[in-house]
Each structure stands twice: as C-alpha cells, then as structure tokens.
Amino acid sequence: MSVIEISHITKDYGQGRGVFDVSFSVHKGEVLGFLGPNGAGKTTTIRQLMGFIKPDHGTLTILGRDCFKEADVIQRSLGYLPGEIAFIDSMNGMEFIRFVAKMKNMKGMGRAQELMERFELDAMGKLKKMSKGMKQKIGIVCAFMDPSAEILILDEPTSGLDPLMQSRFVELVLEEKKAGKTILMSSHMFEEIERTCDRAAIIREGKLVAVEEIEKLKEGRQKNIEITFQDTGMAKAFAAEFPKAVYQDGSRTVTARVGRNLDSFIKKAGEYTITDLDVRTQSLEEFFMHFYGEGADK
C-alpha cells in the first residue's frame, strides 16, 4: 500500500530549475531516501508534498488526499522537518516547541522532553541567538514529538548536526521504522540513507534518475584505492593484472576504482609488499556519474 504517491509532477522555474516529470511512491512502514546533490530538486518536491506550492502538472497524494487541496488536513497528521526552518525569533526554543505542539493539538509534552534529552538540547535560549545545530535539534523535536504521527517527511534532517548527533538521529529513525512509521527523508549524504532506508529515489538536475533498493546501490558504489608498493617492479606487475588500474612508469603507486571485484583486488594486492594504502569511497556526484554513466563497471 502506497502512503505517499507522487505522479508525473513538474514544477518549472525556468533555466532548468525545478522538477520535471517526477514519479515515485512511499509504501506503508517504509523508509525511503530521497537522494541527490544540493539543488537537485528535493526541497521543491517536498514543498509540493506539503501543499506549499502547486505543481504545474501532475498530482501528489498522502493517504489518498490531494496534497495541495487538502494540505491543512494532511499537515495535522504528520511530522515535518523543513530544509529551512522558519522560526519566530522573539520566542525561545521551548516556547516555539510548545507553540508547535499546540498547533498539533498535542495533549502532553513527554515525548518532546525525551527528545530534548536525547539530543542534549537546552531549549530555553532565544531562537535568534541559537546556532544552526541548535535550531536543527529544535526542528527534529518538533517533527518527532507527536506520537500519533504515522508519517514523517524530513528534508536534510541532519544539516548542521555534529557526527555524534547525526548518529543519534539515525538511531531515532531506525526506532521509528521499527515502530512502523512511514518516512520520506531527503539527503545528499549517501551514508545517512544507506543506514536507514529500504529504497532510495535518486534525483539529479530535477529529473528522477532511478528508484532502487539500497542493497543495489551499495553494490554499485565504488571505492577509489591508492596502493603504494615496496618497489616499482611490484607496482608495474600488479597494475598489469588490472587493466583499469592507473600506473605511471617509475612510480611505486597504483590507483584504481574498485566495485564488485574488491575482494579479488585486495587478495591480489596481498601477494605483494605494500607500504601504504589509502581508500576513499566515491562522492555522491562521482557515484552518480559512475553508476548511471555509460560503460560503468558495476
């Protein structure tokens, strides 16, 4: 059963900006990652889901309700974390959280308190004086604090958080997933999506590239490996066994982009004496270019 349905939406802002003929769905109890570089169209799509803007063409529904025509009803039934949070600067953090809770007709603040403790949030300071990270924590509390919300829409939720808080956020999403919540989460960080999501809808330059199972994406993503051998003879001999490896005459270093053949690559390297090894996972943009590029060796 699809909880969120996006069907052939286009929102054209001109000069190639916007989203174009985008379609995907989010199933009940699923965490779907909406993955793409900054400016790819993730926020534009999410704003249409929330009913803030109307598509030029196509339709968006949540639980069968039209996202633009019935936005007020939809917004009361879900948790939402925008990419850019509009705060009331005259309030402190706690006042803002209570304000949002009142709009949601929440009866208690127990869940909000629990979330503030989890994210080590002192919400009593003035919003206008808070750092990006502090404001993001308040946004997370507001998105997750209503226990009755079965749907969560999260736009770049870990933006501004340090690595420890990012890890705690991932744990929170996994808990909500286990509880059966339906979650759409946009990100430009593959690792975040990889740890939490079942599938990912991938967007680039406003167009949907693919909707894939996370396991398939893991297989497609490659590592850039640089190996320094004890002498040039070893480097040359090793490079000869891997045609796509890069080796320059007289060098002890070989570089290669390795995917599914990682195991055989490492085992073969282990037959030589290695003095240094550097491994870097592809950036998201490199991943796109490789995984969906012509002649990709996945």
Describe the structure.
- With 298 residues, the protein is of the alpha/beta class.
- It has two domains: 2-219, Rossmann fold (3-Layer(aba) Sandwich); 222-281, Alpha-Beta Plaits (2-Layer Sandwich), CATH 3.30.70.790.
- Helices cover 34% and strands 30% of the residues.
- The chain has eleven helices and 14 strands.
- The protein has a six-stranded mixed beta sheet, with helices on both faces.
- Helix 3 packs parallel to helix 5.
- The protein is elongated, with a radius of gyration of 23 Å.
- The two termini are 32 Å apart.
- Belongs to the ABC transporter superfamily.
Are there runs of 5+ residues with pLDDT below 50, and where? Answer: 294-298
- Number of distinct beta strands: 14
CATH architecture of the largest domain: 3-Layer(aba) Sandwich
Q: How would you sum up the global shape? A: elongated
Which structural class is indicated by helix and strand composition?
alpha/beta
Q: Which range best describes the helical content: under 10%, 10-25%, 25-40%, 40-55%, 55-70% or over 70%?
A: 25-40%
**Name of the CATH superfamily of the largest domain:** P-loop containing nucleotide triphosphate hydrolases
**Over all CA atoms, what is the radius of gyration?**
23 Å
Content of β-strand: 25-35%
The major pleated sheet works out as: 6 strands, mixed
Q: Indicate the CATH class of the largest domain.
A: Alpha Beta
- Reported by name, the CATH topology of the largest domain is Rossmann fold
**Tally the helices: what do you get?**
11
CA-CA gap between termini: 32 Å
Order of helices and strands: EEEHEEHEHHHEHEHEEHEHEEHEH
Kindly report the spatial arrangement of strands forming the biggest sheet.
6-7-8-3-9-10
In total, the number of domains comes to 2
Pfam family, one: ABC_tran
GO molecular function: ATP binding
Family: Belongs to the ABC transporter superfamily.
Keywords: ATP-binding, Nucleotide-binding, Transport
